[in-house]
Amino acid sequence: MEEKSDQLYNQYFVEIDILNQFEAIFKYANEGIVISDDQSKILKINPSGLKTFGYEHENEVLGQKIEILIPKRFQERHVGHREKYMESPHARSMGLQFDLYALKKGGDEFPVEVSLSPFKNSQGSFVICFIIDISTRKKAEENEKNYRKELEKEVEERTLILKEAIQKLEKTKNELDNSLKREQELNSMKTKFISIASHEFRTPLSTILSSLSLMEKYNELNETEKRNKHNDRIKKSIKNLTDILNDILSVNKIEEGKVIVNPENFNIQNFINELIQDLQGLLKPGQKINFKGAETPETVVFQDPKLLRHILINLLTNAIKFSKEDSPIDISLRLEPNEIYLEVKDYGLGIPKADHEKLFTRFFRSSNVENIQGTGLGLSIVLQYVNYLKGTIKFSSEVGKGSVFNVNLPKNLKSSKI
């Protein structure tokens, strides 16, 4: 009997000791601790819990529903959660997939971490809530997040600056490369021009000098026919020199951007007839320019007659130059509501197929016209002028059968400075 009494006595003191330890933990824990019953009424709250929630005395919260510690916007939802939890209570951490917020006495919300531990005794079922204010951690995380955003923004800005710098360097490099290429092209052009010009100028100048000397002699001998023949040779040589100079001036205008397009209304059919008359003196014996006019009665267009004249004169003089005596040259005009179609056709030397690709290149001359005078500038200028008039130019050619050049221009052109 005495032994049983000692056992009960010892068990009592063990339970007292355990209770004392629990009380010590409850009282001095850094975490907030709230104990509620199965109806979620607060039965006990430790000092850290009071401090966490901004209360001075526990009687301010004891007997209240746990929702007093939860922001109003979450209270209704929380009731459903806790009722479901009490159906099958178990130890768990809350807020693993979302942020949790608690409510201070003064109405301020703050982020928390919450752990639940259910237990039972002879008095009923209870839940211990462990609550940690994580405001400092959240602030640190937010600061870190903001810092990362700022860092990412700064990296992005610097990357953009670097990208812009690289683009500028690339642009500068391309400009330098283009300038170098342009300079090389200009040097090449100068070399070609000096070579061609020296040859092309020498021939007509020699002809003029020799013809002038012979004319003096024929004057003394009173041989009018021979004198007139040499007079024509002088005029033709001067015309060749003028053509060369005009080509050079045209290239210079194009290079310096001084070509001005001045469209005006004019009768294109009359314009071509007059141009053909002006070229009669260049025709070889037996050559004739045949003009097939537009079938429409309205032949007024709004284009630049000066540039169009240069285009047609170049194409027609080439046809004359590269065709034999007694060979016809055909020019035709077709007008559509918005388009002008011109065709210049000859039956002369033709252009070798291997030369087609380079035909509109400056200073390029077909391999089969080496003995015929020319600078190789004409067709390149024609192409530029056609572009200025917002048109296109195409050609077809076969050696020994001649060439056909087709020019397509808008019927109405807006003026512009190139």
TrEMBL record:
<dbReference type="InterPro" id="IPR000014">
    <property type="entry name" value="PAS"/>
</dbReference>
<dbReference type="InterPro" id="IPR000700">
    <property type="entry name" value="PAS-assoc_C"/>
</dbReference>
<dbReference type="Pfam" id="PF13426">
    <property type="entry name" value="PAS_9"/>
</dbReference>
<keyword id="KW-0175">Coiled coil</keyword>
<keyword id="KW-0902">Two-component regulatory system</keyword>
<feature type="domain" description="PAC">
    <location>
        <begin position="96"/>
        <end position="146"/>
    </location>
</feature>
<dbReference type="GO" id="GO:0000155">
    <property type="term" value="F:phosphorelay sensor kinase activity"/>
</dbReference>
<dbReference type="InterPro" id="IPR035965">
    <property type="entry name" value="PAS-like_dom_sf"/>
</dbReference>
<protein>
    <recommendedName>
        <fullName>histidine kinase</fullName>
        <ecNumber>2.7.13.3</ecNumber>
    </recommendedName>
</protein>
<dbReference type="InterPro" id="IPR036890">
    <property type="entry name" value="HATPase_C_sf"/>
</dbReference>
<feature type="domain" description="Histidine kinase">
    <location>
        <begin position="196"/>
        <end position="413"/>
    </location>
</feature>
<feature type="coiled-coil region">
    <location>
        <begin position="137"/>
        <end position="189"/>
    </location>
</feature>
<dbReference type="Pfam" id="PF02518">
    <property type="entry name" value="HATPase_c"/>
</dbReference>
<dbReference type="InterPro" id="IPR005467">
    <property type="entry name" value="His_kinase_dom"/>
</dbReference>
<dbReference type="InterPro" id="IPR003594">
    <property type="entry name" value="HATPase_dom"/>
</dbReference>
<dbReference type="InterPro" id="IPR003661">
    <property type="entry name" value="HisK_dim/P_dom"/>
</dbReference>
<keyword id="KW-0597">Phosphoprotein</keyword>
<dbReference type="InterPro" id="IPR036097">
    <property type="entry name" value="HisK_dim/P_sf"/>
</dbReference>
<keyword id="KW-0418">Kinase</keyword>
<dbReference type="InterPro" id="IPR004358">
    <property type="entry name" value="Sig_transdc_His_kin-like_C"/>
</dbReference>
<dbReference type="Pfam" id="PF00512">
    <property type="entry name" value="HisKA"/>
</dbReference>
<keyword id="KW-0808">Transferase</keyword>
<dbReference type="InterPro" id="IPR050736">
    <property type="entry name" value="Sensor_HK_Regulatory"/>
</dbReference>
